[in-house]
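User: Design a sequence. Structure:
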């Protein structure tokens, strides 16, 4: 396929995560190993292939810098369901 695959250790990945995220964004794939055994693979998302077409429904970084924790989103959905009205849920 033309994409180069590299092997990377868990510690190396953890210590340089942003660098690996950038490389995956450029199309590179990595096999992650722990104690010399492969544990998982990191590869770019195929937006238009078998994984489906991803669409942004809501950008939580516009609500709060850095995004909104999932537990807060679930709590807000529960509040909306209970109240049945438009409620200010994120501060």
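Assistant: Done.
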């Amino acid at each position: 396929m033309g994409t180069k695959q590299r092997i990377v250790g868990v510690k190396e990945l953890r210590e340089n995560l942003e660098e690996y995220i950038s490389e995956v964004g450029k199309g590179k794939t990595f096999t992650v190993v722990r104690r010399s055994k492969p544990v998982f693979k990191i590869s770019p998302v195929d937006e238009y292939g078998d994984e489906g077409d991803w669409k942004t429904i809501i950008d939580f970084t516009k609500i709060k810098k850095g995004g909104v924790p999932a537990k807060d989103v679930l709590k807000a959905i529960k509040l909306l369901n209970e109240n049945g009205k438009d409620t200010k849920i994120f501060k």
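The chain is about 30% helix and 20% strand. The first strand starts at residue 5 and ends at 9.
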